[in-house]
Amino acid sequence: MINDFHYLKPASVKEALAMYAEHDDCKIICGGQSLLIVLRQGMLAPEYLIDIKRLDELKYIKFDDKDGLRLGATTTHREIEKSDVIAKKYPALVAMEQKLASIQTRNWGTIGGNLAHADPAGDPGPVLIALKAEIKFGNAKGETTVPLDEFFVDYFETKMEHGDLVLEVHVPAPDSKSGCAYQKFNLLDSEMGIVAAAASVALNADGTCKDARVVLGNAGPTPLRVTKAEDLLKGKKLNDKLFEEAGKIASEEAQPVADIHASEEHRRHVLGVLTKRMLKKAFEQAQKAA
Amino acid sequence: MSHKKYTVINTPVHNIDGVAKVTGRATYAFDVTLPGMLYGKILRSPHPHARVVSIDTSKAEQFPGVRGVVTGKDTLGIKQGIWRRYEELCDEQILPLEKVRYIGEPVAAVAAITEEIAEKALDLIEVEYEVLPAVYEPLEAIKKEAPTIHEGVERNINVTRHIEWGDVDDAFEDADYIREDWFKCSGQHHMCMETRGAVSSFTPEGKLTCWTGTQSAYYHQGLLAGVLGLREGDVRIIAPYTGGGFGGKFELDAAQFCSAVLSMKLHKPVKIIFTREEDFIASKRRTPMFYYVRTGVKKDGTFCARESRMFSNGGAYTGMGATALYLTGFFHSFPYKWRGYRYDGYRVYTNTMPSTSMRGFGAPQAMFCSEQQIDWICADLGLDPFEVRRKNGHTEGYEVPGQAFIASCGLEQCINEIENWVKSKGKLPANRGIGISSCGFMSGGIFNWFDTPYSFSSAVVTINVDGTVEVHVGCQDIGQGSNTTMAIIAAETLGVKMEDIKIHSGDTDHCPADLGAWGSRQTLMTGNAVKMACEDAKKQLLEFAYAEMGINIVYDLDIKDRWVHIVARPERGMKYEDLVKKALRGKDGQRIMGRGYYTPHRKGMISPAYSYMMQAVDAEIDPETGRIKIHEVMTAHDCGQPINPLGLMGQLEGAASMALGYAYLEDMPFEDGKMMNPNLVDYKVIRAPEMPKTPIIEIDTYEPEGPYGAKEAGEGLTNPTAAALGNAVFNALGIQMKELPISPERIRKALAEKKAQEAQK
Amino acid sequence: MEKQVLRLKINGDEYEIFIHPKTLLAEAIRDYVGLTGTKRGCDTVSCGACTVTVNGMSVKSCSVLAVQCEGMDITTVEGLEKNGKLSPIQRAFLDHGSYQCGFCTPGMLMSSTAFLDELGGKKPSEEEIRESIEGNICRCTGYNSIVRAIDAVAQGNYKEE
Amino acid sequence: MSFKCPACKKEWPNSKQVARHMFGTGDKAHRAWIESQGYSYIELLLAQTTEPGNKSYEMLAELIEKAQDTL
Fold first, then answer.
1. Cβ pair D54:B154 closer than 8 A
2. Contact at 8 Å (CB) between B90 and B20?
3. No. of H helices and E strands in chain B?
4. Which strand ranges, in their side-by-side order, compose the sheet holding A165-171?
5. Count of CB atoms situated within 10 Å of the CB of B426
6. Closest CA to B638 of B360, B331, B408, B404
7. pLDDT tens digits for chain A (290 residues)?
């Protein structure tokens, strides 16, 4: 059962930040798709709850070819899923959203809330990191922007201090010859990944690997970048053998925790398989890309 | 104009409660609110096995908003169980006085003005436990050194069941090939969408009314009366609508008992609704089973003998588990002819939640072992699985020695249909396989361990002046559509239209006793009672028709579509409505009332009739990750004469989804007696995207014992699927799955073992 | 921890209720407004029995604070029937036997209704239909009869009456 | 000839059936008789389930045959 709290409903981001600064024992609710479960389990019992769901200032999807994509924090998953420009420029993002929980959750849940919740099994993290996204958060005093892979620090913990609010996610414009892919391993389509892997590949004109990213989901306290695997690929002509190799590294580097759904060994193994497959998929996209 | 055979049966009709359900008007116990109603919550044991030293409820009682707290001391301390005939099997005190035997067992209950206050008050109840050593697995619990869970029960063996026919050892002598295997079948939760719950109201007249979801209002009336020391007639069970049952809602549960005890103490209505977590940890589950199976066959695939030993994890109490123990043993022989068959089943107490009946009633476990082993034997001997099943399968007129008589059997047609379907699929791509499994099921059990003097089913039919019909039955519509089925049978028998029929069920004050909705009873048993009652009423009408129409006595009269007519000359007749009015006048205004009942006699040990089916599962496995994708589930099914085609289809598709869940998704892992996934995030139930197409072919047979030739449909189809998937995996990857559920990790493990073995060769 | 007056627009009617802000939309609808057609089957936003539409979007009312929905258009299963006429999807459910125990049915109907409205006449694939109800658990039907009903409406076989 | 159950005197055509009947019933009276012969009912049951064959039943059948004339 949810403990009582004072409900605050700011009319602007400015007001929201002021309120947040004013109250110590205070939480932000936006879509609340994760928060309300936590509150119900009594794991959190804030004295104040600030509702930013209706802050339309933060509800936007902007794209231009130089600057790339900018997502306001209160943009819902469903809005991202249904955006034509994102479907055109970042298909992996849409594909990920289509498999994120259920339509009901995507209708109400927001990208900012999802990232702030920092669940290592969350879907957007790995894909956005593979796409080299950065995240902007701010408080009453000012704003900070960090690369998303530095944003997550531990289970359900981010760089944000008390008073900080996620404002925007920025995804740079995609490379001309690049691709990105994400897949989670689960038993039911609509559930969180037991483990997951995202990969992005950018190619030089000569077809060699310009850049690559491998990011694992639910394979540690935060979305996990496997730089060793990335370095292995950079500069090389990519092939199945390298992907296989990268997969091996990923399963070694991963820090998955066993539970009733899968042993540590199985998680490591599947992470290797997914990494291999996603790299290949991203590579093939990059080759096709104009 | 012609005299049609059936005008209602096997025509597509809407369920009679359909509109109420699609408009949200259907009210469940979950929705019931009464004036002055209090809300109850239950305090549950955190220990798998402990002596309750003391319970201090004073703080909780003083908490603002709390109206009362009850513990075992407020009860009569009666040990209850649904096997009333056998005292030693009535072993459960809800709110126990001395010992708790599983995590989640109720120890106290609070009633308050809000649910929230009641929940807060639970924390103020101080219970002192003396923790005792606990045991969770049957093979551990039978060891000498294992703790005793029920005083005086040696080695924790709760019940044993033994079945044998023919000279088993002699039959094994004749076998050219003998195969032995061990299997481990997991538990499964009923996971009804409506969690268990009840609203109880005890009034100064000394009468108790309980609104609750149930599969058998009469059972709950009897059980509640028993534990509360009331007369059965002073307890009224009202089951408005029930949000699913699947075998989990006909034993007395803590919501019903605790709300009743609180209401009797406080003289106010009390509502208790289980949370999903409570429903998981403190209700009941499908019985986990360990099977040893030894089968002997001839070179040509003729079955000689089978002997099986089974240990089931009974959990803390008996409940319906004793029945599952017998049925799994019987259906383990099904649907084949064995010269010699022997089964020894042992139900073992453990410190886990009680296990009980669930859709299939022990048969899905039995089939998982039997049907897979048959395919492995075929592979070992290079035989054709279809041929072997045809060769040994039941046939019409066969008698299972001392157990059952098979009056109708469409097994061979089922096998032929599935064989054609599988052949039509041709060669499959790599890592994809089709597995088959045949089976059958009962149409209601004939055992009376509830020890009631009432008939198994009864019905009362009354015809109103305008021709509308009141049908009072004790059967329980839990979503399977029994009310609609009874309406169809009534309309057909009386020769009226569906809209003329009103079904009254689920209220023990107005409906005759009936054992309820379990073991696939109702179409056959209550159906027969309804048919008999309608024929009784119809006869009373037709007497007047003969007189009124002044026709030759040798003519045969009938009613169809509200037209009373001569069978041979349908155009000669009169309106049913007019006949009813005339008959009423003729009888000095006496209501035209028909009575019917059904109790099976001389029908063997199990059931009056058996359905047959064969199923094929087309599955694809990702050999790298072990993930399973089900492409299609094809079924050929013999349920005798279909009564309600739409309902039949729904039941069979529903069975397939639940059975697929059992086969590869649903599991109930325990650690130190604690269920590890008591929520719908971690307990995986199949959802729409995973659900494959499930085409079904109906095989027409006629079951002489069933109403209009009908028999079981809907429960039995939970039986073949796990085995069929196992066989699909075997055919796709050549690995043998001996443990449920068939998880990605188990598949990978089996693949690794296979590799290792091949490396040795 | 003050209670507050909340105005909710449900099925076109304005309701004024006095609640604590922690009240979930599902609780407001069932316990304060008394529309018990909306069910609840879990505490983990898993089962979808509590699905209603808010401004035409399907949401799980157990995962939304009632106060967040002030001024929005909420529709529950009771709102599908218009002056005695069942909606196309309700009639399709009847014809296809897309319900059994009926406990998940209100949520299923609301998810399907939102999905069909979003389609705006576009013909969906079977996969899209299945995904449209993946947030709703049904333990009885095995979903296929529900999929057939949604498809029948999407194909235009059922008109508004 | 027919065989009597040493505990309840029920009759069966052969001694193995009496043995099955005794295991199946397994109430105090039937257990007691088996114990009186110096065996543990439970031990015999478990033996019957843990290895193939039919050892316990055959053994009990023998005891029953021996006991017939004393009944």
1. no
2. no
3. 18, 32
4. A61-64, A68-72, A165-171, A134-138, A143-147
5. 6
6. B408
7. 899 999 999 999 999 999 999 999 999 999 999 999 999 988 899 999 999 999 999 999 999 999 999 999 999 999 999 999 999 999 999 999 999 999 999 999 999 999 999 999 999 999 999 999 999 999 999 999 999 999 999 999 999 999 999 999 999 999 989 999 999 999 998 899 999 999 999 999 999 999 999 999 999 999 999 999 999 999 999 999 999 999 999 999 999 999 999 999 999 999 999 999 999 999 999 999 86
Structure tokens that stand for B548 in this block: 């009124």
Partner-chain contact D26 B160, CB within 8 Å: yes
Which site among D48, D51, D55, D58 would you substitute to test the B interface, given the most B Cβ atoms closer than 10 Å to its Cβ? Answer: D48
Query: Residues with Cβ < 8 Å from A267, sequence gap 6 or more?
Result: A194, A195, A218, A219, A254, A256, A258
Contact C140 B654 (CB under 8 A): yes
For residues B558 and B600, is the Cβ–Cβ distance under 8 A?
no
Residue with token string 């023998």: D62
Backbone angles phi, psi at A155, to 5 degrees: -50, 120
Q: Which of A187, A263, A275, A278 to mutate to test the interface with B (most CBs of B within 10 A)?
A: A187
8 Å CB contact between C109 and C89: yes
Q: Which residues does A169 contact at the CB level (< 8 Å), separation at least 6?
A: A70, A71, A73, A111, A112, A115, A128, A133, A134, A135, A136, A148
Is residue B357 within 8 Å of residue B324, measured between CB atoms? yes
Complex ipTM: 0.96
One-letter amino acid for residue B440 of the chain: G
Q: Which long-range contacts (CB under 8 A, 24 or more apart) does A14-18 make?
A: A16/A50, A16/A52, A16/A55, A16/A165, A17/A138, A17/A139, A17/A140, A17/A163, A17/A165, A18/A140
Tokens of B568: 């041979």
Written as one letter, the residue type at B473 is V
Which residue stretches of B634-683 are H helix?
645-660
CA distance B671 to C51: 34
Decide the pairing of beta strands B207-212 and B235-238.
parallel
Q: Are B503 and B488 in contact (CB under 8 A)?
A: no
DSSP secondary structure of chain D: --EE-TTT--EESSHHHHHHHHHHH--HHHHHHHHHTT--HHHHHHHHHHSSS-HHHHHHHHHHHHHGGG-
Q: Which residues of B touch C94 (CB under 8 A)?
A: 14-15, 18-19, 22
CA distance B573 to B342: 60
- Is residue C143 within 8 A of residue B688, CB to CB? The reply is yes
Best residue of C50, C60, C101, C133 to probe chain B, by most B CBs closer than 10 Å: C101
Beta partners for residue B501, in sequence order: B469
> Is the Cβ–Cβ distance between D17 and B342 less than 8 Å?
no
Adjacent-strand bridge partners of D12: D3
Closest CA to A102 of B209, B249, B60, C107: C107
Confirm if A223 and A126 have CB atoms less than 8 A apart: yes
CA distance B427 to B404: 40
Q: Could you tell me the CA-to-CA distances from C29 to A70, A246, B67, B350, C9 in Å, in that order?
A: 37, 52, 27, 43, 10
Nearest CA in chain C to B653: C142
What are the backbone dihedrals phi and psi of residue B6, each rounded to the nearest 5 degrees, phi first? -120, 135
- Please tell me the distance in Å from B594's CA to the nearest CA on chain A: 52
- Please state, in angstroms and rounded to a whole number, the distance separating the CA atoms of residues D20 and A203: 77
Q: Which of B718, B720, B726, B577 is nearest to B657 (CA)?
A: B718
Q: What is the pTM of this model?
A: 0.96
Does residue C93 register a pLDDT over 80?
Answer: yes
Instruction: For residue B27, list chain C residues with Cβ-Cβ distance below 8 A.
Output: 36
